[in-house]
């Protein structure tokens, strides 16, 4: 996969991909991540990327010409016959694990990171394939939203995770994760649940599944609609619901 991030502040995105797991994915060649400075695609002396809004009002708007030129060139140089151009914005459709999985199947992503009051609408209409929001809160620009999206997508690329890790994780089966413990077995008088020390892997798996269901019921009951529970797990969930009444 190739990911191009178009921004007027490449420095914001300098750090996030140069550490830990994403760095390893880049080093392994699972993904190529390029920071593209939008000002490279201006032709005036002041490298102007923004202008005042037609109709008046506060703030500045990103001009269409540099964005069209940047995206056209990035598509042409992608080495791929299909590119998906994504605009990060609070007006987009909500990002989630299902969308992350869909994006992880793409060969070339171009992520446009806006700034200021927004982007000329002709970019949104003609250049952008998908407008995505990472949540209902307002950032000062699209860069951190793009970093979140890249992180969630890259960890899903084939070869990134051990098979087990991706199978067990939160949201993959619409349940939150069970609690985790490591040594020591007693810390400041707080004990690790004895079942985890029992060596009985069948019982441990059952306990973890129940803990996942309990947590999801307590913290994110909305997720339970999508969860696929075995008959005995449905019975367990019903017993939880009765205890709460
Ligand atoms: C440009 N402000 C781009 C995206 N989910 C989310 N919240 N906020 C944004 C976002 C905010 C922005 C720009 C200027 C994205």
Q: pLDDT average, as an integer?
A: 96
Bound ligands = 3-(1~{H}-indol-6-yl)-1~{H}-pyrazol-5-amine
Strand arrangement in the largest pleated sheet? 2-1-6-5-7
Number of helices: 8
The CATH architecture of the largest domain comes to 3-Layer(aba) Sandwich
Q: Based on CA inertia axes, which overall geometry fits?
A: elongated
Q: Give the oligomeric state of the chains in this entry, treating copies of one chain as homo and distinct chains as hetero.
A: single chain
Radius of gyration: 23 Å
Q: Quickly give the structural class.
A: alpha/beta
Helix share, percent: 25-40%
Largest sheet: 5 strands, parallel
DSSP, total strands: 9
Helix-strand string: EHEEEHEHEHEHHEEHH
Using the coordinates shown, work out and report the CATH topology of the largest domain: Alpha/beta knot
Overall domain count: 2
Name the CATH class of the largest domain.
Alpha Beta
End-to-end distance, in Å? Answer: 50 Å
Going by CATH, the homologous superfamily of the largest domain would be: SPOUT methyltransferase, trefoil knot domain
Unreliable stretches covering 5 or more consecutive residues: none
